[in-house]
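Annex B.
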Amino acid sequence: MLGASIIIPALNEERYIRQTLESVRKQKTSLDYEVIVADNNSKDRTVEIAEKYADRVVVVKRRGTWISRNTGAKKSRGKVLVFVDADTVIPPNYLEVADAVLGEDEISGLSCAFGFDQKSRMLGAIEEMSNSYLLFRGMIGKGEILGFNNAVRRKTFFEAGGFPNKPMEDGAFARKLWKKGRVIYLPEPKVVTSARRISKNGPLTAAVYYGNLALITDLPRLPKKLAIFKEYLSVR
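Glycosyltransferase 2-like domain-containing protein: predicted structure tokens.
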């Protein structure tokens, strides 16, 4: 069995995935690790680019972020599973730190702090507020799992049942991990992720969107007429 597997879900990510894969391949670690891209039937050059860097490209026909991550995990061989989105760049020490932290039995999962690939006063404020809040949650052991970067031991992942088919699959996965141990949030190393969704739709729309998804994830019996956004299928 390998030391770690880095799993990247993707759908039409030819613009971003190369830099993600380059960062994954530049990990400074003694661990032997593999790179798996779980592609959701991309129509652009995503697969072509991925094949130049990944050890394996897995085609996932059913649409959804949760099933792409889970399929990649099922095809993996690593003791530690790291999930990185196709528009996120991780620093060279990410894998080494994640492996060391997960060596503590009481820790069931982790995510790392983030910065955006674009700079503005508004994005800077979102970064600061989000990281501060998530760091506090991690300090009390009830950290959130950020879909675009997280790590978990293989055994814990499969005992928890992987990412659930929920609107906010990463938040729902965190709640499953809370039952297995502490979920923490690391201030370092810090990843860089795309701000394209916020830039495209604006921070208010993004906040309402993700807040609504979180609401219908935590309250599945919520009347559908109150759900502005009823599902989330995107594979990043």
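Residues 2-226 form a domain with the Spore Coat Polysaccharide Biosynthesis Protein SpsA; Chain A fold (CATH 3.90.550.10). The first strand starts at residue 2 and ends at 10. Further annotation is deferred to the next reporting cycle.
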